[in-house]
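Design request, tokens follow.
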């Protein structure tokens, strides 16, 4: 790892349009930055929507990247990739072509107007935790094994590996 580089975990979700293609493109776009190197990609999972209005199932995946970007610069890069997929913010937790969240940035703990790390809702979301645990069975979030958190998450039933339509 480059001196000063940090490992970040990013969670991607899509439930509008050609979600499988969107996720593949987004992973490539996230990695297509001189300050970002892709380390690992989880399986794609199909998940029931958590919160928000009645909406289609999601496809979700998690990646880990090694990055030289500062946390807010990584957030800006994630949002640029969301915007490239015509992400429109209408309803909270509403359907979207692409969502990219920063789940962890090394061990950084941070909370300001635009960025909270670790992501404040990740520890209860199977759609983040289960693919993360499959990608990295030893992963830990704020001191607790991610696999243990996934097993307790209310949205775990209904989550399945996406094999393609
Ligand atoms: N760790 C984080 N990753 C991504 N965005 C974050 C994070 N912490 C705070 N934010 C802020 O949250 C704002 C709203 O993000 P977004 O619209 O993606 O929320 P959401 O995906 O609908 O809901 P949720 O935050 O529950 O996943 C962003 O504009 C960003 O500034
Ligand atoms: N299954 C699922 N549900 C969600 C998702 C998501 O990615 N997958 N994202 C949300 C807001 O980030 C709200 N609800």
């Amino acid at each position: 790892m480059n001196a000063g580089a940090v490992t970040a975990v990013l969670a991607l979700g899509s439930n509008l349009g050609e979600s499988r293609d969107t996720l593949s493109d987004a992973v490539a776009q996230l990695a297509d930055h001189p300050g970002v190197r892709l380390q690992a990609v989880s399986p794609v999972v199909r998940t029931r929507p958590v919160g928000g209005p009645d909406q289609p199932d999601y496809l979700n995946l998690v990646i880990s990247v090694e990055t030289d970007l500062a946390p807010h610069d990584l957030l800006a890069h994630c949002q640029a990739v969301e915007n490239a997929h015509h992400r429109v913010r209408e309803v909270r937790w509403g359907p979207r072509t692409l969502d990219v969240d920063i789940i962890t940035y090394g061990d950084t703990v941070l909370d300001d107007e635009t960025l909270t790390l670790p992501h404040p809702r990740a520890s209860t979301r199977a759609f983040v935790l289960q693919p993360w645990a499959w990608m990295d069975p030893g992963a830990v979030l704020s001191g607790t094994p991610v696999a243990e958190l996934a097993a307790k998450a209310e949205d775990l039933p209904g989550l399945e590996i996406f094999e393609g339509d």
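Comment from the thread starter after seeing the answer: thanks! The chain has a mean pLDDT of 94.
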